[in-house]
Write a structure and sequence with these properties.
- InterPro entries: Beta-lactam/transpept-like.
- The structure is a single chain.
- It contains nine helices and five strands.
- By secondary structure, the protein is α+β, with helices and mostly antiparallel strands.
- It has one domain: DD-peptidase/beta-lactamase superfamily (Beta-lactamase).
- Strands 2-1-5-4-3 form a five-stranded antiparallel β-sheet.
- It is globular, with a radius of gyration of 29 Å.
């Protein structure tokens, strides 16, 4: 995100030098009667703009990856900021990544519980269904999850509706990479999210791939996967938070799918991206949550006049 700066061209610098020499010559010919200032304010030093932005460097490096199948990645600094979009941005179904906003909505209503832990750590679908039912009627559940998405800055995702009065299968919600990354970037800033993120930092072996290979101090992830009914092709995706070396964090959302692709092939492709993210940690845009506003100082009540003695 560097800007371009104007710098003096060689011809301009030479022309300025000739003007200074000419002025000095006139002063000498005038026998010193003319005053020539010998002190000049130094010209501001303007740094050369990098020839390639960090975004361009990431894009060029990503385009050189051999993932074997199409992969898309969205990168957003925690706290919000411009997204860096790489690769295939076809909007994928949320699958089990939607369990994170679901878990936050449920924990706010009923507190921490075993179903929340299993839904995140083990990606257990039955536990996720229990969380959905804990939000009330099917319509109330949709409203609650939608509210969490909106609170995290996702203003466009439409949670899949319930059919026939049944609770919705939330994983069928289409959750694009850019909006899911933007929401994940706001997750640490949402009230009550600390426990959810801690569970994401301790996922089981079934989700220990992709961003988990990027290294770093703390990595929190949630994976999702499923096959399409028409050809059994798998879609494999992941959202997560990566803590960088300066303690800032960056949100990542990535996915892969291809005709006939297996779950194992998808995991291998996202592992390749995870390794790549680890090698390019220094180029990733980190951020942090805005500082909470400082409480207003209490006003000092006026002193009570003392009665004369």
């Amino acid at each position: 995100m560097s800007g371009r700066h104007r710098v003096a061209r060689p011809a301009q610098r030479a022309r300025r030098l000739r003007i200074v020499v000419a002025v000095l010559g006139v002063a000498v010919l005038a026998g010193g009667s003319a005053y020539v200032a010998t002190h000049h304010d130094p010209a501001p030093v303007v740094a050369e703009a990098p020839t390639t932005s960090l975004k361009d460097q990431l894009r060029a490096s990503f385009d050189g990856l051999d993932t074997g199948v199409p992969v898309g990645v969205a990168i957003v600094p925690v706290g919000g900021g411009p997204a860096i979009l790489l690769g295939d941005q076809s909007p994928p179904d949320a699958w089990s990544t939607i369990k994170i906003p679901l878990a936050l909505a449920a924990e706010r209503r009923t507190g921490e519980n075993r179903s929340e832990t299993k839904a995140i750590v083990d990606s257990d679908n039955l536990s996720a269904r229990r969380l959905t039912r804990s939000l009330g009627t099917p319509d109330e559940a949709i409203t609650a999850v939608t509210a969490i998405l909106r609170e995290g800055g996702d203003i466009s995702t439409v949670v899949v509706p319930a059919e026939g009065g049944e609770w919705p299968h939330l994983g069928e919600t289409v959750w694009p990479l850019d909006t899911s990354a933007a929401w994940t970037a706001h997750l640490p800033c949402l009230p009550g999210s600390t426990h959810v993120i801690d569970l994401m930092s301790h996922v089981g072996r079934e989700q220990d791939w992709g961003l988990m290979r990027a290294g770093g101090q703390t990595t929190a992830v949630k994976g999702g996967w499923g096959s399409e009914d028409d050809d059994d092709s798998y879609l494999v995706r992941q959202i997560g938070l990566l803590t960088l070396d300066d303690d800032t964090r960056v949100a990542i959302s990535m996915s892969t799918t291809a005709p006939g692709m297996t779950y194992e092939t998808g995991v291998k492709a996202l592992d390749t991206v995870g390794d790549w993210l680890g090698r390019n940690r220094g180029l990733l845009p980190g951020g942090s949550c805005p500082a909470p506003p400082s409480p207003e100082a209490p006003s000092t009540p006026p002193s009570t006049p003392q009665a004369p003695r």
